[in-house]
Each structure stands twice: as structure tokens, then as C-alpha cells.
Amino acid sequence: MSPETKKCQHCKKEFHIAPEEEDFFSTIDMPLPKMCPHCRYIRRLQWRNFRTLYERQSDLSGKPMISMYAPHNGFTVYSSQEWWSDAWDPCDFGQEYDSARSFFEQYHELNKRVPKEGLIQINCENSGYCNLTIKSKNCYLVFGCMENENCYFGHIVWNSTDCVDCFYVINCELCYWCNDCVHGYHNFFSNDCNHCTDVYFCSDCFNCQNCFGCVGLKNKQYYWFNEPMTKEQFEKNMVAVFPLTDKKINQYQKQQFALRLKTIFPPYHGKQNENVSGDHVDNCKNCEQCFDIKKSENTKYCATVTEKINCYDINFSPTPGEHSYNNLAPLNFHNVFCSHMLNNCHDMWYCDACYSSSECLGCTGLRNKKYCILNKQYEKAEYEQVKAEIIKNMKLTGEWGEFWPEQYSPFCYNESVAQDYHPLSKEEAKIKGYRFKETDRKEYKKATYEILADSAEIPNTILEELLACGKCGKNYKIIPQELAFYKKHQLPAPRFCPNCRQNMRMQLRNARELKKRQCSCQNSEHGHSGQCSAEFATAHPLQLENVYCWECYQKEVY
Q1: 306 vs 134, 182, 281, 318, CA distance in Å?
Q2: Alpha carbons 203 and 223: distance in angstroms, whole number
Q3: How far is the C-alpha of 526 from the C-alpha of 547, rounded, in Å?
Q4: In 10 A of CB 376, how many CB atoms?
Q5: DSSP designation for 125
Q6: Which of 87, 169, 537, 552 could, after both became Cys, cross-link 514 (CB 3.0–4.6 A)?
Q7: 367-399: per-residue pLDDT in tens?
């Protein structure tokens, strides 16, 4: 069978639905998507706010708190302690379904009334400025923070200790300014390094130790910009490196980038896969257009997920799940659809922030519940009857199978994680029909140049200063734990605020978009032309000229 071609209702571009996708949607009793995978993905991301925090009052106690929900945005918000307390019952907000009205409109009304948890924190200690955080201790401004200790300024940092300004790092310790590093120890200014120790300004290295400025090395030790040297030579060179200054950092980064342009790369970052496409894919089989995915099978259009089976369109899910579609941040789930932030749930449709629940439709804030619709409790038989009526009506209105529209999200586009992965200007967002929050226009205090001078010593008085970002102008502060880290590792104080530093690290990653290209390998064994004819989809930018198919890459590297 040939793929079916459709036109996206949002971007108006054509997209294809393969026969196996038609089978999948048939098994879950949902119509074929009206939007292309990218637009479906952007819609989901607009319901997730990682890093935009506000000072506001709890709508229960009136006490001040830090929250991901802006004050006066129309949603009811409690502190985490209040949300988990017995001071309220989510079923007290239950409402009858009205068959004459849009289901999405009715859910939106309920969603605004039922309390939201200001910051999502589960079993955390001394991490009050972290959001979407699980089992972490002494962390600060880390978002998507899971089982960490003493980590500061990060995004998707899992099972790590003493890591600062890191992005997508897992099982790492003593790392600074790193992206996509796994099982790393003492890694600095490095990207896509796996099982590496004491590496600096390195990229795409595996099982390397004591390497500086290297790209694409495997199982190497004592290398300097991909050239081998003795231990004594390496250690002598390192003496001249520290203390690091901004000038030195810029110099080393430029040298490494020049080397990167000459290095051979495979179609994607990953290992031990079969029939996959995307980037940062590990131990997967039959996974298409997936990014940052591990240990999954028969899965499509997913990102930042682990252990998924027969799942489509899921984001931010680090725990097992199967047979589900169009979800954002579900944990330990089965048979859940078009939902957000469910934990230990199964057989759920259009639900948000529910825990240990099942057989619910259009509910929010439930804990240990079953047979609920719009937070109203039913007996099983009546639940099945009302659910069938709602599904029938939603199919007629075209709502069934679609994620909640972005206009009902508690967040504007630039408050949500969509702005992190796919930044838009106010004008661009308006053209696409997205809401955009006006930025703060107040005057910011300027820091003195002497405090941020490019020198080896950071004065302790910097803790008393309100610094101004060298990029956006907003104020930020250096905290004592952060300063101790810089001094210990002979690093300069950052000249940019945490948000701008996050955006700078984001730009170092490949975009989550695949483009077809031909293998770059030039070899006489490929015939008269000398170039391999293999084609593949890759997220690598065009400026990386030496991108090989897997067969040519393995012949060249191994």
C-alpha cells in the first residue's frame, strides 16, 4: 500500500501517513491526524512551561510562592504542599457534560477552576526554584530535573551530581557547559560525549579520557585536538589552559568547531538500533522521526522518552509506557490518549495532572479515581454510556484525536517549552495564531565592567552584585554554590543570564527536523562517480559536509 497524502490544517504543507500508521490509528479508534507531525508536536509543547517562573500568591492560602503560572492568568493555582493536601477534593469541581456544546470548551472551563500545582516537585529537598523536578536535592534553576544533587542551571538533567549549565545530561558528575553527555565525569564545554572522563572542549567522543578539543574519537586517551601525545605533554599543555578566561574559551571553541567541520559523522547520534530515524536514538527498533529516545520499539514522532512500545506523538516521558498517542509528559502509563502529565494511569482520555487513576475522560487533578468524566464520579455502566456519547459527538465536531488547542493552554507561546525548541518572535507567533506574552520593559541595573573583567580571579563581592546580561540586558545574580564551583574549577563568571545561556546551549544541538541527503563518502569502490549513492534522513546541518551512511561510516571509523 502507498502512503496517504494529506494537507496539514495548520501549516498547509503536505504530509504522508504510512500504512502502518493507518493500522495504528485503527487499533486506537481514532481518525487519521489533521495536522502534520511537526504541528502536532508544537501544539503539545505549548502546554508545557519549564523555565518561566513568577512570584504570585496561592489561591488557597494567599501565601507568596514561586509558580510557573503567571498571576491573574485565569487559572486557580496552589502551592505544591497545598495541592497534595486534603484541603480540597478535585471531584468537588465535577460538572455535567452538555452534548450541545464543544467538549474542549467544557474541559477548558473545568481546567481553569480545578487547582493547578504551582511548581511540579516530587520528593525534593532544597530545590525551590526548580520545576518539573523528581527526587532531587540542593538544585537551583534546573528544569526537567530527575534524581539530581547539587546541580544548577540546567534542562533535562537526570541522575547527575555537581553539574552546572548543562543540557540533556544523564548519569554525569562534575560537568560544566555540556550538552548531550551520558556517563560523564569531569567534562567541560563538551557535547555528545559518552562514557568520557576528564575531557575538555570535546564533541562526539566515546570512552575517552584526558582529551582536549577532540572530535569523533573512540577509546582514546591523551589526545589534543585529535593528535596523540604523551601523558607528560598533555599535562604540560593543561597547565597553560587554567585558569580559563572568556578569551581562552572562545579560542578553544573556534578551534574545535573548525576540526568538527572536517570530521566524519554518521546519520544520527546513537547506537545499537535497528530501522530508526531521528537523532540521539539508543537501543531502539522500528522508531521513526524520534529524538532523544532510548529503549523503545514501534514508536513514531516521539521526543525525550524512554522505554516506549507502540506509542506515537509523546514528549517528555522518562519512564515506561505503551500503546498510547498524543501525550505530553506521561509517566508509567498504558492506553492513554491526548493527555498531559499522567502518572501511573491507564485507559485515560483528555486528562491532565492525574495520579494512579484509570477509566477517566476529560478530568484534571484526580488521585486514585476511576470512572470519572469532567471530574464527576459515575458508576461503571453510566460512565461507559456517557463516554460513548462524548466520543460520538467529538468525532462529529472533529475534536476526537486532536490535542487541546493552544488557545486553551495556561501559557503563551514564549512562556512554554515550544519557545525553547522552536523560538519565534512576537510577529512570527502572531502570524501562526499563537498568543505571545509581552516582555518586561523595566529598566535593569547595569553591572560594572570590573566585576565581570576577563581575569583569573572572581572577587567574592560578585555575590552582592546585581549583574546585567550581556545579551538581553536582564539582571541575574551569582549564588554562593555557583561561585564555589567556578573557583574550584578555575572558570570565569558567566556574562549572560541563565535564560540566554540556555538558548546558547540549545543552538549547539541539531534541530529536531530531518532532511534527506546523500552519503558524502568518496571512494573508488562506489564506482565511476566515486560517491556513495545511499540516501538517508538526518538532523545534521548542511555545514557538516562529511555525513556518511552507516555502512560507510562504520568502514571508515572502525
Answers
A1: 16, 14, 10, 5
A2: 13
A3: 16
A4: 18
A5: B
A6: 537
A7: 999 999 999 999 999 999 999 999 999 999 999
- What one-letter code names the amino acid at 520? S
Which of 141-150, 198-207, 433-442 is least confident? 433-442
Q: Which residue is it, cell 517528555?
A: 316
> What pairs with residue 218 in β-bridges?
206
In the structure grid, which three cell numbers stand for residue 380, read together? 461503571
In angstroms, rounded to a whole number, what is the distance separating the alpha carbons of residues 210 and 531? 36
On whether the CB atoms of residues 121 and 342 are closer than 8 A, the answer is: no
Q: In angstroms, rounded to a whole number, what is the distance separating the alpha carbons of residues 135 and 421?
A: 25
Please compute, for residue 100, the number of CA atoms within 13 A of its CA located in the half-sphere on the CB side: 0
Confidence class for position 274, pLDDT limits 50, 70, 90: very high
Grid cell, residue 453, equals 573583567
Rounded to a whole number of angstroms, the distance between the first and last alpha carbons of the chain is 38
At which residue does the C-alpha cell 597547565 appear?
Answer: 239
Cell of 428: 512570527
- The single-letter DSSP state of residue 115 is P
Instruction: Show Cβ contacts of residue 153 under 8 Å, excluding neighbours closer than 6 positions.
Output: 140, 141, 142, 164, 165, 166, 482, 498, 501, 502
Non-local (6+) Cβ contacts of 443 within 8 A are: none
Which of 315, 363, 418, 331 is CA-nearest to residue 49? 418
pTM above 0.90? yes
How far is residue 288's CA from residue 298's CA, in Å, rounded to a whole number?
8
Asked if 315 and 300 touch (Cβ cutoff 8 Å), the reply is no
- Do residues 59 and 78 make contact, with C-beta atoms less than 8 angstroms apart? yes
Tens of pLDDT, residues 418-449? 999 999 999 999 999 999 998 765 555 665 54
pLDDT-wise least confident of 10-14, 372-376, 457-461: 457-461
List the helix and strand counts (H, then E) for the chain: 12, 34
Q: Which amino acid is at 46?
A: Q
